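Quick start: read one record
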Amino acid sequence: MAAQKRSLPLPEAVPEAGGEKQRIDRWMWCARFFKTRSLAAKFVATGKARVNGTRVAKAAFLVKAGDMLTFPLGDRIRIVEVTGFVEKRGSATIAATLYADHSPPPSPKEGKASAPHNPRPDAAPDSRNRARLRRLKSQG
């Protein structure tokens, strides 16, 4: 029988003299910025995250309440202030209480109000579009 490897549980939140601290990858995962903790750790390892203006490249970096995190996410730059910690990842409502969002509002998409986009312009119209074309031709 093979011996099973036992791993030690990771600390949920490390209490310090100045308050609680938590690993940045774990906090970003609990705050629901990333779907998995490993994705959060890989993102931090790229060096794109900043804590109080200082570039962070280690997932084990400890954040504390009051720290300002700046990082790109999707097509936006997120600026969030750490306001709390949790031991387990919870719902989106709970996650929203972990930070104060100071990000600029998303810019309106250019061309969004324009005509609908045809994803396949070279494709033949389907039955619904053929009926619309017939109605347009008969009216004009």
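The helical segments are 24-30, 37-45, 92-96, 127-139.
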